[in-house]
Amino acid sequence: GSVRNVVAIGEALTGYLQARFHATLPRATLWNSYGPTEAAVGVTLWRCRREDGERAPPIGAPSWNTRLYILDDDLHPVATGDTGELFIAGLPLARGYHGRPELTAETFLPCPFEAPGTRMYRTGDLAVRGEDGEIEFLGRGDSQVKFNGIRIELGEIEAAVAGLPGVARAAVIARTLPHGARLIAYVVMRPGAACPAMPTIREALGATLPRYMIPSFVVPLEALPMTASGKLDARALPDPAADDAPGAFRAPANALEALLARLFGDLTGARNVGVDHSFFDLGGTSLTAMRLAARLKATNGMILPMRALVEYPTPAGLAAALTRVDGARHTSLPNRARPAVFVFPGAGGDDLSLAAPCEACDPAVDMVVLDYPDWRPLCRPGAGFEALIASFVRTRVWRTSSCRR
């Protein structure tokens, strides 16, 4: 009931989701925004209208200091109502790709509609401008796809998969499965060659691809399905079957390990998850990681820093890391006869990294770790850290380390 504004960006907002939003949150306003990383992320804004129902919303008009052009193949403006490629110019635009002059020259072009030296960014997105001037997004105009908010080239992944030992042909698609969007690789092996195990494939692909581009599943096939015209029939590719988590199974040793193993399985669709299985090897993504954090907090109140999951991606490792931090909670005042060190966490409230300094500190010193501080007292004239610490002592909101030797 307290939600008033929600901004959708990163994926195309569907009319169906827009209608569900208005039905679920009748008092809130839904904004649709668009923009690639090369242009400071968000460069348009549209206030969604309840009366539009399930009609796909536009991406709106350009934001302040941004210009949008819809051009044809010869970089000429298209008529209102005609489809063209979307180009972005203005102050939010990046200057190019660091250390990639060829790629910069390919996508950051001289803008013929503005002062000499001005550049515009070729988005690769198709768009149309309506009679009212609002712009509608129509999808990609090349082989890129949007996967979990990140543009990726499926051809680049296919080339990496095809380079694995014994692979004769490969195809990669992005598909929404019951447990979320997944990248799926389909391989046809050479005669006599066996498809490698998933951990081996992940390790090999990790040498050339970032983690978010490594497929969650590799499905061996006798042959790739083709259409009558000889093109890949992506609709005929089967969904991967639910399978046991790869590798040896080791049972949880305590309740937190058991909870994490169960949540890993629930969110990735893997069966028989043990305490040594990696969340990311099971197909976990940044989006499922956020859902994991929400489920963990709702189940037992624990805060899951995203960095902790990256550093300790198994139920055993993550349980130990979270126990070190959560075990530090208590409400007794520091001993006034002993020196105390007050530690302020970062803006994200992630205090997992404070465990190591606490363990290394002299046992004669009390380590007082302030938990999610309110920085407003520092903004008032004459206020300082003393006032902030005093407010925490009054409200008794802190953690004192009990995890050192």
What does this protein structure show overall?
There is one protein chain. Helices cover 25% and strands 23% of the residues. The protein has helices at 15-24, 101-107, 154-162, 198-205, 255-268, 286-300, 306-311, 315-326, 355-360, 376-379, 385-395, and strands spanning 5-8, 29-34, 44-47, 61-62, 66-71, 83-90, 108-110, 119-129, 135-140, 144-147, 150-153, 167-177, 180-189, 217-220, 340-343, 366-370, 398-400. Strands 5, 6, 7, 8 and 9 form a five-stranded antiparallel beta sheet that branches. A four-stranded mixed beta sheet has the order 1-2-3-4, with helices on one face. Mean pLDDT is 81; it is low at 328-333, 347-351 and 397-405.
Topology:
Layout: E1 5-8, H1 15-24, E2 29-34, E3 44-47, E4 61-62, E5 66-71, E6 83-90, H2 101-107, E7 108-110, E8 119-129, E9 135-140, E10 144-147, E11 150-153, H3 154-162, E12 167-177, E13 180-189, H4 198-205, E14 217-220, H5 255-268, H6 286-300, H7 306-311, H8 315-326, E15 340-343, H9 355-360, E16 366-370, H10 376-379, H11 385-395, E17 398-400
Parallel strand pairs: 1-2, 13-14, 15-16
Antiparallel strand pairs: 2-3, 3-4, 5-6, 6-8, 7-8, 8-9, 10-11, 12-13, 16-17
Overall morphology:
globular
Order of helices and strands: EHEEEEEHEEEEEHEEHEHHHHEHEHHE
**Class by alpha and beta content:** alpha+beta
Instruction: State the share of residues found in helices, binned by percent.
Output: 25-40%
Q: Give the averaged pLDDT, no decimals.
A: 81
- Rg estimate, integer Å: 26 Å
Low-confidence stretches: 328-333, 347-351, 397-405
Number of strands: 17
- Distance between the first and last residues' Cα: 46 Å
**Main sheet record:** 5 strands, antiparallel
**Beta-strand proportion:** 15-25%
- Counted by DSSP, the helix tally is 11
